[in-house]
Amino acid sequence: MFKDAFASLPFRRDDELKILDVGCGLGFLSCTSAEFFTKAQITGIDTFEHDSLRGSSIEKARENARFLGLSDRIVFEKGDVFTYNPKKSFDIFVSNLVYHNFGRRRFGAYSRLASWARPGAYVVMGELFFSPKIDLIRLSKEFRILKEIKPQTGFEIYLLLVMSRKGSEKKLA
Predict the structure, then answer these.
(1) What pLDDT is stored for residue 172 in this prediction?
(2) Does 170 fall in a domain?
(3) Largest separation between any pair of C-alpha atoms in the chain
(4) pLDDT recorded at residue 53
(5) pLDDT at 154
(6) Residue 50 DSSP class
(7) DSSP-based three-state secondary structure for 167
(8) What span, in angstroms and rounded, lies between the C-alpha atoms of 106 and 35?
(9) pLDDT at 52 (0 to 100)
(10) Domain interval for residue 127
């Protein structure tokens, strides 16, 4: 699903992009991003301590990237959406199964993510939306929701969103 979402973005696969993976865990989405966007530089941030991913560590994320031959383009750092302060701008922000862990604090996390996204940046977010109407209203205050992708089978509350920072008007494929 993420590769389909990436293909809909107005970027070429060999563009030199900067991607931030928020809540990267073991680095699988960081690696998927690096495999799809062959010249992208990816930064993955995580606390590497959340109960939702037992055994997670920055070392394991680095090992996964190294195993796939992608460690030259992926950097992992300790950080979270509430405290991280990006030192550079990013073209794409990705996350999968992160924000539902924050309960009501997720709304502040959405705003924080939006503050990092300049016009022209895109967000690809896979999430369990237990209150989809409320979450989509909150997200639409910060972002233009361009595409909603639902899995063909499985979780009914999982949704993959492709969004742009308001002010970005590029059309998707």
Answers:
(1) 56
(2) no
(3) 41
(4) 67
(5) 72
(6) -
(7) coil
(8) 29
(9) 66
(10) 2-7+14-164
State both tokens at 154.
Answer: 């499985």
pLDDT at 166: 72
Domain count across the chain: 1
- Kindly give the pairing relationship between strand 41-46 and strand 158-165: unpaired
Q: How far apart are CA 115 and CA 117, in angstroms?
A: 6
β-pairing, 74-78 with 41-46?
parallel
Q: The domain spanning residue 80 has which CATH number?
A: 3.40.50.150
Q: What ranges in 19-57 are assigned the alpha helix state H? A: 28-36
Pairing of β 92-96 and β 122-128: parallel
Cα–Cα distance measured from residue 153 to residue 95, given in angstroms and rounded to the nearest whole number: 20
What residues contact residue 149 under an 8 Å CB cut-off, 6+ apart?
1, 4, 5, 159, 160, 161, 162
Q: Give the pLDDT confidence score for residue 76 in this predicted structure.
A: 97
What pLDDT is attached to residue 170?
54
| Mean pLDDT in order along the chain per 10 residues (173 residues) | 96 97 96 98 90 79 96 96 92 96 94 90 95 94 94 85 76 55
Q: Confirm whether 105 is domain-assigned.
A: yes
Whether 61 contacts 27, CB under 8 Å: yes
- Residue 129 in contact with residue 136, Cβ under 8 Å? yes
